[in-house]
Specification:
By secondary structure, this protein is mostly beta strands. It has eight helices and 18 strands. It has a 16-stranded antiparallel beta barrel. A two-stranded antiparallel sheet has the order 10-11.
Length: 469
């Protein structure tokens, strides 16, 4: 009953916001700033030739959404990517002799990628440990508008198969040194999506992951450490119902509304079954209540100073949000007692501040910052989080799609955990984009006070390879 009341309240709130927002002047983002440049991650800004067009979806010559820099890769994919038309140049298999184009005309598209990461602690830790983690991720999207003539409706199903070792557990770090490890196979997100009001409103319902929509920035994809990519980790580390697959998902509903060409609002209501969130039964534990109560609620407002769609290569985005969960949580450090829910907040932003080739180009320097806070350190292992960094794409002029990135994060450990302060991490990496479907990223991380304890720091080095099939 309580779940139904919360759901109804959230839907009514969204309806009121949408109704009031409709009264504001709105310029269609698809037609605003008509002179914007192509943001595709390609060496050239030239449009495809007629021959190429015959083998590519219609959107190849348009820009990618900011929240979807690589629509063909299903790994931790933002929900904004689901209806983004794929570019075969982002895949190893391209159009598969015309098969994908034929499927696309029917409204069916598939995606598959593999990410592998080899890491070791060069210094620190009990002894040197080598760890490998791999993640094979698949996605299936069905556009019911094309297949069944149901305008604006589509269905998405994802899944993953993970292998390898959990290096973070061996090193005792607070923030996992990678976002790849999740052993065995899991069913991922599975939901129905409907777009309305000339695509200004997008609503989803089904098995969802809040982390795939909320509190994330495009620049976070350039990093390896889980504390940076894809969200400020404490949001999920304090409440695993927020985290995305692998391992788990939750029943939920969410909606995103483009209020103006520069402002977007999003809100979501999610179940908080911890068994489901941890991926029990390989992601098929769909029970609503297993000792949990209430719901996880997330809402955010995002500001795109250069336009939500036609951003002209500047890639500016600023987001503030609230998160709340009225479930019962184990107290820290030992979980020997239970306490009520929490309220938290987050803020983040990125901006491309330097473009040597001029506006409308992708080469240049992007700076970013992030912050997250949880009001209840009794149940939150990391109540305060800070992050900052910079990423330069095309530092080497002949390698315009490569990116060098540096990031720093700070996680304050709860005062209820004795003899701890904060864990800090510095990450530096270089993403070498051999082709649009294959990247290799040598990575360096240094961790101060692993786990927040006054122990020697740890140096982690590794290399990540990602390929989209």
């Amino acid at each position: 009953m309580a779940m139904s009341v919360l759901l109804a309240a959230t839907l009514w709130t969204l309806l009121l916001v949408i109704t009031s927002g409709s009264a504001l002047a709105f310029q269609d983002p698809a037609t605003s700033q008509a002179g914007a440049g192509n943001l595709r991650d390609t060496p050239s800004q030239a449009p495809p030739s007629p021959t190429q067009v015959s083998h590519l979806p219609a959107s190849t010559s348009k820009m990618n959404r900011m929240d979807c820099p690589r629509s063909a890769d299903p790994h931790r994919r933002h929900t904004g990517c689901k209806d983004e038309e794929l570019d075969w140049e982002e895949t190893l298999s391209h159009d598969l002799a015309g098969l994908r184009s034929k499927m696309w005309k029917l409204g069916i598209s598939t995606s598959l990628s593999y990410t592998g990461l080899l890491q070791t602690n060069a210094t620190g830790g009990p002894h040197q440990i080598w760890g490998y983690a791999g993640q094979l991720v698949a996605g299936l999207n069905v556009d019911l508008g094309k297949l069944l003539k149901v305008k604006g409706m589509s269905v998405y199903v994802g899944g993953s198969w993970g292998t390898g070792d959990n290096l973070s557990a061996s090193l005792g770090t607070l923030f996992p040194v990678n976002s790849i490890w999740a052993s065995t196979y899991y069913l991922g997100e599975m939901y129905l999506q409907q777009t309305l009001l000339k695509s200004r409103l997008t609503a989803l319902g089904g098995r969802l992951a809040a982390a795939n929509t909320f509190a994330t920035l495009p620049v976070f994809n350039n990093y390896v450490n889980y504390g940076l990519n894809p969200n400020p980790y404490p949001l999920g580390g304090n409440d695993i119902a927020f985290l995305g697959p692998p391992t788990g998902t939750e029943w939920g509903v969410q909606a995103t509304y483009i209020l103006t060409p520069a402002v977007q609002i999003s809100a979501g209501l999610f179940n908080n079954n911890l068994n489901s969130a941890s991926g029990q039964n390989h992601g098929t534990d769909w029970t609503l209540q297993q000792g949990n109560k209430g719901a996880l609620v997330v809402a955010q407002v995002s500001y795109y100073p250069h336009g939500i769609v036609t951003d002209q290569g500047k890639q500016g985005e600023y987001t503030v949000g609230l998160i709340s969960d009225n479930n019962s949580f184990s107290t820290v450090p030992g979980g020997e007692a239970k306490s009520g829910g929490y309220v938290g907040a987050f803020a983040m932003g990125q901006e491309m501040v330097y473009q040597p080739d001029g506006r409308g180009t992708m080469r240049g320097l992007t700076v970013w910052g992030s912050w997250a806070y949880n009001s209840k350190p009794l149940i939150s292992i990391v109540p305060l989080f800070w992050g900052a960094g910079a990423s330069y794409q095309g530092l080497i002029s002949k390698r315009k799609n490569d990116a060098v990135s540096v990031g720093w994060i700070y996680g304050q450990v709860s005062r209820y955990v004795p003899d701890t302060t904060a864990e800090q991490i510095l990450e530096v990496n270089y993403r070498w984009l051999y082709r649009r479907f294959l990247s290799i990223t040598p990575d360096f991380q240094y961790i101060w006070n692993p786990g927040g304890h006054s122990v020697p720091g740890v140096t982690v080095v590794g290399v990540k390879a990602s390929i989209t099939f």
